[in-house]
Design goal:
The chain is of the alpha/beta class and 208 residues long. It contains 7 helices and 7 strands.
Length: 208
């Protein structure tokens, strides 16, 4: 289960209102069940911001904390941290999912994993090369029991080979984490990758 399509706008230059307007317009024109549209905010104090008042007029608004919004319509996430991105991906099952952000580095992995449509350029993200896709899938699979068992030889042998490939290719940890969330990993799980995503000389020695 996943969104039928993913779209986004990077507002790091023109601002969040610009990014939001681009995503809102696309979801309005192309989405279904508009009355059940859902707005996801990074924190509820942003609920009074003027740029989203038309979209949020149905009061189906939430953040990563508290009661989730009603599902059934297109979903728009504003500047989502990982937990909010995860919620949006799950909430938009068989619906359009859009992201408006001024922090593109936090979601670019998600955009690559889903080949999301950039509404500012009308181009889809091309994804990643096959060897990188394989490494990311291997890292996803290695986390079936979480990413906190690096001191055990068995898990270290699963975590670190794909991480070495990704680090050598220049992919940063934020890219990797949002990519894995797009593949279905929980945000809580992938946050632990920060401690793994370091050069070999900084990694703990496997004990058993």
């Amino acid at each position: 289960m996943s969104p039928v399509d993913n779209v986004w706008v990077d507002g790091s230059v023109h601002g969040l209102a610009y990014a939001f307007a681009g995503v809102e317009g696309y979801l309005c024109e192309n989405g279904s069940n508009w009355s059940k549209r859902a707005l996801l905010l990074p924190h509820m104090s942003a609920r009074t911001e003027g740029y989203h008042q038309n979209f949020s007029a149905n009061n189906n608004v939430a953040s990563a904390r508290g009661k989730p919004p009603e599902r059934g319509g297109p979903v728009l996430a504003v500047d989502p941290p990982l937990k909010l991105l995860e919620l949006g991906v799950r909430l938009a099952d068989r619906q359009l999912f859009g992201v408006a952000t001024v922090h593109p580095h936090e979601v670019i992995g998600w955009a690559a994993a889903t080949k999301a449509l950039d509404l500012a350029t009308s181009e889809r993200h091309p994804g990643v090369p096959p060897e990188i896709q394989e490494a990311l899938q291997d890292l996803h699979d290695a986390g079936y029991n979480g990413y906190a068992r690096q001191r055990e030889r068995f898990f270290a042998a699963k975590y670190f080979p794909p991480i070495d490939i990704l680090m050598d290719a220049g992919y940063d940890v934020d890219f990797v984490k949002s990519y894995l969330v797009a593949l279905g990993k929980s945000s809580d799980s992938v946050e632990r990758i920060d401690k793994l995503y370091v050069p070999p000389s900084q990694r703990p020695r496997a004990l058993r």
